[in-house]
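Dear colleagues,

As part of the handover before I leave the project, I'm documenting each prediction I ran so the next person doesn't have to rerun anything. This entry is a single chain, and its sequence is reproduced below.
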Amino acid sequence: MPKNSQIAARVFKTAGFAKAAKKALISDDDLSQVIRQVIKGQVDDLGGGIYKKRLNDNMHRSIVLAKGERSWIFEYLFAKKDRENIDHAELVAFRKLAKAYAGLTEKQLDFLMKDKDLIEIDHDDKT
């Protein structure tokens, strides 16, 4: 977890997360607020750059991946009523994905955004 809660961070959501968030009526503004809480440590740290955060009045859970503590990627969203948690195999896969994201260059990030695999969330720099 970042030691400096005043850092400017880039925040993204995957295309799949964006679709699920839209269906759950979770806005980008909501996600920006959530990232502020994540950076402050108000999150379940699952290790390996994986964080689980409650959303939408505790109705949903999100899996957020850290890219070197400079970028945050909303990767997965699920309803609490549908499942309690992710399983071990999913956690292992998310850790591998977080490691892959951590190695991305800015140019690669730009390509993923151009390809619409990642969507940058509007937010202020007061994360």
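The chain has a mean pLDDT of 87. The chain has four helices and six strands.

All the best with the project,
I.
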